[in-house]
């Protein structure tokens, strides 16, 4: 009897991955979620074939969030009677975490401290950002962008992009401070965007920040100095994520595809 | 999947092939039935498995092979009709009854069948056994699934991993 049991145990572990996948494909979302916990092997089989993803996807637009006048007061607007109620009060977050929404992508929000989903009221903290080198911080201001595509992966990424060239006062201007405002000729003449462009990226897959290099595909938009002349203001620019590529609207109306 | 038409297909006597299990038992079966296996189909089309030669199946023991062939023989006529578009409701109900009865078996036999079905690439049998295992999983918690399917008790490490996954996918139980 014991021998028989032992044999069965070996058998279930010997089943080919494709056979297990064949079984899992026939399960609904709840049973799939339970099966995902059964063993590491099963979890791997499921993830390799993206079996879970169709069930994580929202199948319709539930509503839209609107931030009135950038007052950080979010309201959720939806057609009546559709689906669960979603609130613009992010009161499930630890206090202060909702202070500023930095970006959003496919239903997830990025704030200073965390990434959260207002529909499920779940959140995950972000580890501290890697510091920006002092020389760079005088010249470029960073923006953060959230990238999440549930059709590709259940994981999200946060990009820190030093895309804004900081406005510098000219000698003779009111409050001109050479230590802060003096232009560095070498940086001014350097190509923009640089190649490689080394960006800090957080991925929820590892839960860590990492450096990633991006290489420019094509000619630079100009020099840093050209960008400065074209548009001196440094608001955060919008970005859109589509089909594996992040499009960032930069100064001088050029769009970087990452 | 149509049964291969061999040259003597019209003279009434069905062509036979011999399959040899891992423990050296010989099974003589109609080529049309054995051809439900994608793996065997090419060999049989090439004229293999006839006469004194058999097709060796080193991964399938005789108990499993006899069960597999029982399925193939039952399903071969319907498959020969190109998925049986003109099968009567009675024929279909009979096949369904046979299928339900067929997978009402010991777990170890079921697992051996799964492996044989994948080895031999018998599409209908693959679906049938997969559906059976899926039915065994439905409505159960991860621990119950492990027990039902005969996984060994989780090590403390595996238990911790399961708990972590439960947190991540807890919504499924809400």
TrEMBL record, chain A:
Cited InterPro entries: F-box-like_dom_sf, F-box_dom
Lineage: superkingdom: Eukaryota
Pfam family, one: F-box
Domain F-box: 15-55
PANTHER family in the record: F-BOX DOMAIN-CONTAINING PROTEIN (PTHR34591:SF29), OS03G0653100 PROTEIN-RELATED (PTHR34591)
Designated name of the protein: F-box domain-containing protein
Gene name, Swiss-Prot/TrEMBL: gb11479
UniProtKB/TrEMBL annotation, chain B:
Keyword set includes Glycosyltransferase: no
SUPFAM superfamilies on file: POZ domain (SSF54695), Skp1 dimerisation domain-like (SSF81382)
Signal peptide start-end: none
UniProt domain SKP1 component dimerisation: residue ranges: 124-163
Keyword entries, A-Z: Ubl conjugation pathway
GO BP of this protein: jasmonic acid mediated signaling pathway; protein ubiquitination; ubiquitin-dependent protein catabolic process
Pathway the protein contributes to: Protein modification; protein ubiquitination
Location of the SKP1 component POZ domain: 16-75
One Pfam family named in its UniProt record: Skp1_POZ
Description of how the protein assembles with itself and partners: Part of a SCF (SKP1-cullin-F-box) protein ligase complex.
Family: Belongs to the SKP1 family.
Function: Involved in ubiquitination and subsequent proteasomal degradation of target proteins. Together with CUL1, RBX1 and a F-box protein, it forms a SCF E3 ubiquitin ligase complex. The functional specificity of this complex depends on the type of F-box protein. In the SCF complex, it serves as an adapter that links the F-box protein to CUL1.
Name under which the protein is recorded: SKP1-like protein
Phylogenetic lineage: Eukaryota, Viridiplantae, Streptophyta, Embryophyta, Tracheophyta
Name of the gene this protein is made from: ga14711
